[in-house]
């Protein structure tokens, strides 16, 4: 698989299906972008974004799901658990203008040595608010895949800052530790004729996660859910690891074989 694979961009999907469609091999469907980090450095189009507290974000050969290289968030630490402010090391990518309002994604993640209690974001995709011509990063609505209190989590956010009130979904599935985990997601910002964008959906190793906890997070608190504004097209991606509260145990993550597209991409065995 090439390190950056950009196939023909055709007509945008109207909306993502509610069922769990069969996966197709990564980079085989049209309109798919994928990155295996086999250049040994950041792939073309990705640029450094967040850099707070201690640790590094680099492409190296210390561990890989496939091939030799992966994106490595190395020994992130800093801040105080339970309070805002933690280590953040991320990169960002500008999508083609006609990507559309539905985004499927897939990445393999390895975490060691401990499951963080703090909110640890792994991937997000952002889009302009309805009717807005603004394209700046801090003006965009966004979907996120993350972990919190040692479990997988997914969120819909308004623009950051402040990024809330946000709609939070917490699974009953613990973060996979000391092994590769395949995460897939569906961010359906069109959602057919529904009045709002869809809630995020996430799969772990091919099994869709359930969300026994759903709530609104805001500061000050509120119980009024945010309106999930609908999308005309995703414009930017962010990946790496970003902690919104402190992290006291130096922790490392590897991310490999990242892909996004308009169809489900699926999980593949290590190469």
Biggest sheet details = 9 strands, antiparallel
Helices and strands, in order, run as EEEEEEEEEEEEEEEEE
**Share in helix:** under 10%
CATH topology name, in short, is Jelly Rolls
Instruction: Kindly state the number of beta strands.
Output: 17
Chain oligomer state: single chain
Strand content: over 45%
CATH architecture: Sandwich
Main attributes?
single chain; 271 residues; mainly beta; Jelly Rolls; 9-stranded antiparallel beta sheet; 8-stranded antiparallel beta sheet; 0% helix; globular; disordered N terminus
Task: Describe the structure in your own words.
The protein is an all-beta fold. It has a single domain (4-10, 31-261), classed as Sandwich (Jelly Rolls). The chain has strands at 4-6, 33-35, 46-52, 54-60, 70-78, 88-94, 102-112, 120-127, 141-148, 151-157, 166-174, 180-188, 201-204, 207-208, 213-217, 236-243, 247-261. Strands 1, 2, 4, 5, 7, 12, 13, 14 and 17 form a nine-stranded antiparallel sheet that branches. The protein has an eight-stranded antiparallel sheet with strand order 3-6-16-8-9-10-11-15, with no helix packed on it. A hairpin with an 8-residue loop joins β10 and β11. It is globular and about 45 Å long. The protein starts with a strand and ends in a 10-residue tail after the last strand.
């Amino acid at each position: 698989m090439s390190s950056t694979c950009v196939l023909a961009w055709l007509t945008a999907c109207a909306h993502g299906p509610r069922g769990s469609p069969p996966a197709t091999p990564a980079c085989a469907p049209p309109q798919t972008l994928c990155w295996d980090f086999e250049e040994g450095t950041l792939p073309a189009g990705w640029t450094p974004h967040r850099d707070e507290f201690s640790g590094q974000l680099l492409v190296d050969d210390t561990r890989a799901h496939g091939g030799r290289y992966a994106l490595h968030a190395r020994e992130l630490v800093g801040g105080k658990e339970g309070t805002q402010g933690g280590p953040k090391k991320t990169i960002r990518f500008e999508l083609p203008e006609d990507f559309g309002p539905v985004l499927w994604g897939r990445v393999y993640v390895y975490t060691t040595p401990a499951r963080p209690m703090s909110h640890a974001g792994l991937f997000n995709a952002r889009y302009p608010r309805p009717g807005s011509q603004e394209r700046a990063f801090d003006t965009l609505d966004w979907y996120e895949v993350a972990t919190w209190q040692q479990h997988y989590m997914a969120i819909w956010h308004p623009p950051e800052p402040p990024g809330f009130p946000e709609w939070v979904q917490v699974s009953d599935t613990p973060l996979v530790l000391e092994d590769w985990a395949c995460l897939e997601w569906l961010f359906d910002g069109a959602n057919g004729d529904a009045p709002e964008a869809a809630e995020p959906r996430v799969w772990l190793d091919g099994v869709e996660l359930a969300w026994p906890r759903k709530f609104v997070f805001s500061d000050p608190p509120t119980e009024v859910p945010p309106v999930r504004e609908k999308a005309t097209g995703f414009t930017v991606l962010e990946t790496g690891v970003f902690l919104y509260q402190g992290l006291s145990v130096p922790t490392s993550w590897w991310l490999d074989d990242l892909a996004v597209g308009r169809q489900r991409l699926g999980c593949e065995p290590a190469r």
